[in-house]
Structure formats: structure tokens, C-alpha cells
Amino acid sequence: MHKRFRLSGPVLCLTLLFTLCLAGPAPAGNGLYQYSTIDALLAGLYDGDLTVRDLKFHGDFGLGTFNGLDGEMVVLEGQCYHVTAGGKAVTPSDQALTPFAVVTFFEEDVILKLGRIRSLDELNKAVLAALPSRNTFCAIRIDGRFSRIKARAIPRQNPPYQPLAELVKQQVVVKFTGRGTLVGFYSPAFVRGVNVPGFHWHFLTEDRTGGGHVLDAALNNEVARIDELREFSVQLPNSPGFDRLDLSGDRSRELHKVEKDPEGKTAK
């Protein structure tokens, strides 16, 4: 004969809470989640305490980098990819750590048909004209055939770290043609110092073996899918390194230097 047990209210609540803790953080809503700030990265904080596993609880689409400023991160359809210097994409361990990342659960709101796009600047202007608002965040996904993608990744660094504006001189530039996906975000101007105002793009080849941070792009008659995001949350690193940073200055010039195709090595 089996004995039956009944859980009282408090015991049941504790049991459910313990189960949820074991399962990990609850998925966020249709908003943008960010770990750390772009100015902290510019200042040389290249070591974070957020794992890839925990990052994926906050979104299935996004971008970032890895501890030691080791290459570029692309998150697409729930899978995280690590693009190393030279453009090769591999799957990182769930325990890999990130010092900066931005993700969301992608749900398209707007479909934009693109004509001939000859540069990244042309792409940015075309998408900007179609945004629901310039004061909200947007995630942008473009799948298609690209006649030119110029992408970069920076080799892993060792402490003591130099500022990002100096390390970007070590970037390895790779050029791609063919099918792939652009993973991008638009952020409004008021997030200066926290995120990258304007557009930030990463690329992943269709076979998921190559990619990087996009410096230039060309495509023709493809479609951009846009997800408008009106919620924005930032998790700050819980570390003495972050607490000691001086983030009071304006690093806009440094960011421009990093984002606007500085000179670097070209992969063979």
C-alpha cells in the first residue's frame, strides 16, 4: 500500500523555488539584456563573470566578446559561437565567460525589403529610415547572400590589459562572400557610454564556420527583419576591477576609433 504525502503551503513554495533555482534564471521578456557597459570594455575590463550558459537564459540572438577580449561572439537561434582572430567560428563551452554581451529573444515586428546595398553606411541608412523609432532599441537580422563582408576579430589578450583603442590595431581582418547572417542592434543616442549608439553588427556564415565584427558589407535585394525592443536591462559585473574603473569621462572618440574600420592585419 502506497502512502500519500501532502505538501503544506510554505513547503510547497520552498520546493517550487528550489526547483526554479536549479533550472536557472527565468527567460526575460521581449527586451534587451546587456552585461557590463561599452565604456568598461573600452577602458580595458576584459574579464567578466557571466557564463555563456547564463547568458543564453536572457536571449537567443545577440553579440559580444569573450574574456581576454578573445575574438567575437555571435548568438543565433539560441546557439553561441566564438569567432577567433582569423575569422574561424567554433562553439564555446557553456562555462566560457564574457566581459560584454547583448542579447534578446528575437521576434520580428517589421520586415524591410532592401535594394542594392554597396556599403555598411548604406545599410545603416536604409535600416534607420525604416525603424519604428530612433528612441527605442531594435534587433536586426539579415539572412542572405553577401557580395562582400569585411569582418574582424582581435586575438586573445593577457593582463595587464591595454585600452581597446590600442588593441584594435592588432585586429585580424577577414573577407567573406556568400550566404550568411548579419546579427545587429540599433541603440538610441541616449545610451552613450553604456552601449554603442547607432548600429553594431556581427556576421556568421551560413555553415556557422566563420564570421566576426562587421566593418563593411555589400548585398542586393535581401530582407531585414527588425524586432523593436522597449525594455532595456543592464547587469553590471560584480568585481573589484569594475568597481575601480573611472567611467566619468567621454569615450566617444575611442569608440569611433574602434568601430570605424581602423587599420589591422589581413588574414591570408
Structural class: alpha+beta
Q: Architecture, according to CATH?
A: 2-Layer Sandwich
What's the mean pLDDT score?
Answer: 90
Q: Give unreliable regions as ranges.
A: 1-24
- The total domain count is 1
Number of distinct beta strands: 17
What is the H level of CATH, i.e. the homologous superfamily? Answer: Hypothetical protein, similar to alpha- acetolactate decarboxylase, domain 2
Task: Output the CATH class name.
Answer: Alpha Beta
The amount of beta strand, in percent, is 35-45%
Portion of residues in helices? 10-25%
Biggest β-sheet strands, sense, barrel: 8 strands, mixed
Order of helices and strands: HEHEHEEEEEEEEHEHEEEEEHHE
Radius of gyration: 20 Å
How far is the N terminus from the C terminus?
73 Å
The number of helical elements comes to 7
What does the overall shape look like?
globular
CATH topology: 60s Ribosomal Protein L30, Chain: A
